[in-house]
Amino acid sequence: MTWNDVVYLLPEIILSIGASLLLIAPVIGRRREETSAKLAMIALLVITAISLIICSHAVESVGQTRGFGAMFALDGFSIFFKLLFIAAIAMVTLLSDDFLHETRYSAWEYYSLLAFALTGMMFMASGVHLITIYIGLELMSLSSYILAGYFKNEVKSTEAAMKYFILGAVSSGILLYGISLIYGVCGSMNLNDIARAMSTMITNDALMFGIMLLGAGLCFKIAAVPFHVWPPDVYEGAPTPVSAFLSTASKTAAFSIFARIFYVGLHDFALDWNNVLAVISALSMILGNLAAITQNNVKRMLAYSSIAHAGYIMIGIIAMNAYGIYGVLFYSIVYLFANLGIWSTVLMMRRHEYAGEQVDDFEGLSRRAPFWAFAMVMFLLSLGGIPPTAGFVGKYFLFAAAVQSGFGWLAIIAVLMSAVSMFYYLRLVVAMYLKEGAEAEVAMTPALKTVAGISLAVTLLFGVLPTPLIHMVEQSAASMVKRVVVVNPGSVHPERSEGSTVPRREPPVVQKTSVVTGAQ
């Protein structure tokens, strides 16, 4: 590793040092200074973002060593997700302000854990080596386990953390076993080397089993069926800001590695795994939406909703085309900000240490806080994919990707389940506007207003004027689109028919069509 390599790693180095300083700050007598902790965390995030932007320009003239380049990349895809992660953690920091002020728990350790989780997420986004991705994933996961149990004296919080830890440890073992099998067959854990090795293979049982285990571990991280049992209990038991983190930043980070691994490393075996993932996607959408209908607890409802949205975003990975990767990036922003807006509104309804958890708690919100009730409606419509919100544009990309790749049946299921989701989303709207209950008690703070306001602006702006975000997504995904093979609908490798014993010889054709203009 040389000083040139340090340029690529500088944001992560700054963030890890800052996280360590936040952790040791209570030792020097600043344990109860919540405001100082928040300001230190915000400053750390700002410095990290600035260093990331500077380094992203500096690397254009600075080369990597061969060994480091095989482990870590700072491309448009990783920069997009890193900036998104930083924005998400900044908003979670604002959501946590009152929660930490009203409890006896130290803010320094809390923000330190968030910073370490962010460090892991940034390594995940830049990882082009399975071990780099795994280490980043574990750093994020270990921080998340502790954050989920941050209410140390609350039984629900402790139970949530224990369930999350046990299931997470099992999934990590499965994921690591899958990685070891892929390494044994391909001889490398670099995604590009794996892709080159697979391009010469027709079929391999050990490789397929490794891909299956790798996919199972990743499906747990995104809470896809049948690895979905943990979100309802964890979201309900964890502090509400932590639930917001787990349902937004953590899930988005998992999708970033899901997309990179399958688009870069496993695209030549797409015919062998995309049908399995299509079934998982369909089951996630169906079970998540149907289970959410019966929930009266808002946090559990949002947990099942997140399972359904995992199914939606998986469509972009299954499609293996330009629309698919654009949809993953676009919908990641849409989903993240809409969810953060909803969680900020939930925190406005808080009762003691836990937020307003029941649908009935929202009765009368339109009379007490009409603007924030309207914002809540926009967030829910965005998750449902209703115009003029950004969720409509995001789902358009995903559904178009499914149709283009021959998975029209999956697009039909997604449309039907989006309609079903509006049933339980509208339950909250009915409670806010039509129920005759007592007026909701609303605790509006500047921090919560800021998060909700930013989320509302993003949701509406990119719904009405999506072109700037589409251009940004196209540029960020350029390196991934180069790997997309133009194929006939319903076939990933038409020259490699079922039962064929002839390896594919012709190089893939790069798709160069612009989603925005349609021009060559």
Overview of the structural elements:
The protein is mainly alpha-helical. The chain has two domains: 1-265; 275-491 and 506-520, no CATH class. It has 22 helices and no strands. The protein has helices at 3-24, 34-58, 66-69, 76-95, 97-102, 107-126, 130-148, 155-186, 191-198, 205-222, 230-237, 240-265, 270-293, 298-319, 322-348, 365-368, 370-384, 390-404, 408-433, 446-464, 467-476, 478-481. The two termini are 40 Å apart.
Provide a compact summary of the structure:
The chain is an all-alpha fold and 520 residues long. It has helices at 3-24, 34-58, 66-69, 76-95, 97-102, 107-126, 130-148, 155-186, 191-198, 205-222, 230-237, 240-265, 270-293, 298-319, 322-348, 365-368, 370-384, 390-404, 408-433, 446-464, 467-476, 478-481.
Oligomer: single chain
Globally, the shape reads globular
Please tally the helical runs, counting DSSP H or I stretches of 4 or more residues. Answer: 22
Number of domains: 2
Radius of gyration: 22 Å
Q: What distance lies between the first and last C-alpha atoms, to the nearest angstrom?
A: 40 Å
Number of strands: 0
pLDDT averaged over residues: 84
Assign the structural class, choosing from mainly alpha, mainly beta, alpha/beta, alpha+beta, or little secondary structure: mainly alpha
Spell the H/E element sequence: HHHHHHHHHHHHHHHHHHHHHH
Low-confidence stretches: 485-520
**Largest beta-sheet details:** none
How much of the sequence is in beta strands? under 5%
Name the helicity range.
Answer: over 70%
